[in-house]
Amino acid sequence: MTTPLLECLEIETSPNPTHSVIWLHGLGADGHDFAGIVPEVGIPASKAVRFIFPHAPVQPITINGGMAMRAWYDIRVPTLIHAEDEQGIYASEQSVMALIQRENSRGVPSQNIVLAGFSQGSAMTLHIGLRYPETLAGLIALSGYLPLADQAAQGWSEANRATPIFLAHGTFDPVVTFDRGTTARDLLLTHQYAVSWHAYPMPHSVCPEEIRDIADFLTSSLTSA
Fold first, then answer.
1. Distance between CA 220 and CA 214 in Å, rounded?
2. Does 221 participate in catalysis according to the annotation?
C-alpha cells in the first residue's frame, strides 16, 4: 500500500532545485516553525535548494492529557525513552521516507538530501537517517535524542556510516534533557559515525550561534554533495 504524502510547506532558494533539505518540526508545532531559518542559513547562490517543512499528523498525546496536536508519534511518559510509541515511530518513518523518495522522483538524488529536525523531529531524523538504505548528504539533529535506542543499532544501514551528522543541544534544556543528547552522541561515536557535537547555553530552543553553525554545516554538506 502506498504511503500518503504529508502536507508540506516548500521554499526554493532558486528555480530547479538540485538539492533538498527536509526539516521535521517538534511536538505541537508544524512545518512553519522553522521556515524562517531559510534566509538565515545563507545558502550559496550557486546552489538551488528546496527546503521542505512537512506537517506531522494530528494525534492525541498521552503526556498532554490526550490533547490532540501535531506529532510524529505519541509521548507517553516524561522520560521520553520509556514506554515508547514504536508503532507511531515506524509509521512516521514511512511517511518521511516517502518524502525522500518523492524528491528522488523530482530529480534530487538521496546523496543531495539533508534530513534535519528539532526535538521530536530530531529524534525522527536520527531514527530515519541512520536506517535509510541510500546515502544522504547529512543529518541535523537539534535538541533531540535517539528513540528506541536499545534496538537502534540493529537496523542501522551501512549507507550512512560516513554521512556527516550535526548534533546540538542546550545545556539548560528542561524538556529533552542534556543527557539525552550526550547519550545519543556517545552511542554514535562508539559506532564510529561522523558526529559533529555542539552544546549551547540555552533551554529547549535555538540560538544565533547555533544557526551560524548550522549554516556552516549545510554549506559544507550541500557543497560536497
1. 10
2. no
Helix, strand or coil for residue 125?
Answer: helix
The CATH superfamily of 8-224 is Alpha/Beta hydrolase fold, catalytic domain (3.40.50.1820)
Check 85, 143, 173, 221 and give the catalytic one: 173
Q: Give the global pTM.
A: 0.96
Q: Where are the domains of the chain?
A: 8-224
Cell of 121: 523531529
Among 98, 95, 2, which Cα is nearest to 57's? 95
CA 203 to chain centroid, in Å, comes to 19
What dihedral angle (degrees, nearest 10) is formed by the CA atoms of 146, 7, 32, 111?
50
In which element (H, E) is residue 149 found? helix 149-152
Q: Pick the catalytic residue: 119, 122, 143, 221?
A: 119
- Tens digit of pLDDT for each residue in 198-212? 999 999 999 999 999
Q: Give the separation between CA 86 and CA 84, rounded to whole angstroms.
A: 6
Give yes or no: 204 in active site: yes
Per-residue exposure over 89-112, b if at least 16 CB sit within 10 Å of its own CB, e if not: beebbebbeebbebbeeeebbbeb
Report pLDDT digits (tens) over 182-197.
999 999 999 999 999 9
Query: What are the backbone dihedrals phi and psi of residue 137, each rounded to the nearest 5 degrees, phi first?
Result: -75, -30
